[in-house]
Amino acid sequence: MRKITKVIACMLIPVFLLSSLGTTQAQATIQGPSTHAQSAALIDVTSGRILYSKDGDKELRIASLTKIMTAIVAIEHSKLDDKVKVSPTAFAKEGSSLYLKLGEAMTLENMLYGLMLRSGNDAASAIAEHVGGSEEGFVLLMNKKAEQIGLTHSHFMNPHGLDAEGHYSTANDLARLTAYALHNPVFKRIVATEDKSAPNPNESWEYSWHNKNKMLRMYEGADGVKTGYTKKAFRCLVSSATRNGQQLAAVTLNDGNDWNDHARMLDFGFEYFPLVEVAKQEQPVQNTDVVTGRGFWYPLAKSEEGSLTKKLILHENRGQSETEGKEQSTDPSFGLAGRIDMQLDGKLVGSIPVYRKGSYIPPEPKTEDATLGGIGDVSSWAAAWRAVLSHLLSP
Hints:
The chain is of the alpha+beta class.
């Protein structure tokens, strides 16, 4: 089969952001919010675009913000109904604690609630040992995940965030990690929870956990994520909020006025970088026989709306049999005609898959399709889009 590529100028904006593409950072044409943080970042969760950054690549201690990575790695590598046992090394771990008893067993799901709502260091160690076989084994998984996501200024030494040499991240990296994690419905549900109770096998009373994240109660639309503090890292916070269908996440490291600073950062993002619907799913591309495979929204300042450049790249497949061409197939690569690339300020920020009219277009996954193991279990959809992307990115 011979593939011929046609490049056609196109005024349609891409509607599918590839996870393998680099994310853009908003330019300093708009005055950002003032903060008391040593380092800060604001990200649009849907697109992964960093909208504001203050010394965002400065490597710093991150305290219990570490547990964002702990939670997502555990969700992706284990089952929520697994029983997690408290070992001697997890029992009575210093710092914030759920006060779990030695030998006590709790489901991973409830342990994750305790981890994220009350920042239990004993829960972090117990989870790490259960998922990774040991804390050291789990840390390897954490650093592997950081590499996969593209966190180039992060390194983890433990699952709880207690101060340790060689354990650090940045505001920008934590923003990207949070955006990644918030695409997981299990993680998203846990961090948005204000109060949670869990069975206590040793007492007549239940565990009752109240979320330490005050943003859930003081900011309209707040739905996450994690607080942190140590004597060396000082106050650290990641918050998220959703308004008008747009979810933002804010990060501050070493910020003594973090609650107010996060409110200002989130207000800034919602006001100046709203999500703009730039194309609809199955939208016809003018003067062609193809349609878009995705609808897409992208955060844009008003001054940027005219700065998008686009081009349609079509692949003509020769050698396909006439019978094969007529067959109605659910193979996601069948009918795939090419893509539309989009650049903002000279940087590629997304690509649309385009399909021949009338061909099969694979659906987007629904949150309710995710099983207890998280979005990693939507395997059929993931496999379908891997096939699509392999065709999109082939020369």
